[in-house]
Amino acid sequence: MMKRLAIYSYSGIQGIVAPYVHHFLKSLLPWCHDIIFVTPRALVPEERTSLGRVGIQIVERCTPGTSANSYIKGWENVRDPEKYDEIILCDDLVYGPVFPMDQLFRKMEDSFLNCDLWTVFSQNPESFVREQDSPEFTRPEDSAFSFIAFKKSVFTGTAFKEFFSRKDVIWNSIPEQVAGFEIPLLDRLDKENFKLSTYVQSKRGAGIWYSGTLFPLEALYESAPLVKKEVFTGSAEAYLDHGRGSQARQTLKFISEKTDYPSELIWQDLLAERGLSEIRDHLCISWIFSNQAWAILRKPASFGWSWSGKSPPFSGLPWTSFEYMSRK
Fold first, then answer.
1. Are 68 and 179 within one domain?
2. How many domains does the chain divide into?
3. How far is CA 304 from the centre of its chain?
4. Where in the sequence is the domain holding 22, given as residue range(s)?
5. What is the mean pLDDT of residues 155-171?
């Protein structure tokens, strides 16, 4: 197995690592020699101990910015990059893996013979650049850098080092990161004849870029191991013009019924970060739930409940999760 380093960008500011992130890191560990975990705030002692116990190096960024800023900070802390065959950049803007990581890495190891860098999801930079100043439908959240890998020939090259030395540049949003960091870097690498490969090939149809954010089910049917958080946190109205207003709900159903991924990790994250009305809107749930029901789902321990450890089946209604919770 090739020697890999992963730099993971975490955006949580409470000092607590979300359960879905722990799950992701646990799945990534067998495939990486080292992992650098970059956080914008100091972690609580319990989290530092938990990550340190499995050999994950913690780096505190302590500055504003996006994943690109975390990757640059993580890169600063790589003592001997040339000892690695591959460097992976990944962040907390995805859930997963919903399919085994070995499926991803084995396919891309074969592909790596014919490419210099690879990502799970592809981008449509031309569409983004053309539409970024337009009020029309745009998906700038389609970051290719939620999981991207670089071969040694790339990360020891001039272009990579130049972009990863931009310590003074702050990107304040994912669209800024895509337009100001990702697309220029990928364009520069392309001009230097580095070849990019993609695990899930986006398809273009009806004038729409079939991306991991806009068309997650298509990506899942292609065995994409990761699901963009934007699928569940973006405005459902953005999908309606394309008949995709129930994408989040359908994606949760697919994950619950056709994968072994514990879908309660998605629920727990959404309930921890989002308002209840926002969740109802994004999941296209038109029913009104009692405040008590939502309160129990958000903080079950406060009401004497706990998760049973099984993934709740999906019917579009959060109260089905009660079947997978139990009284203490």
1. yes
2. 2
3. 32
4. 4-228
5. 94
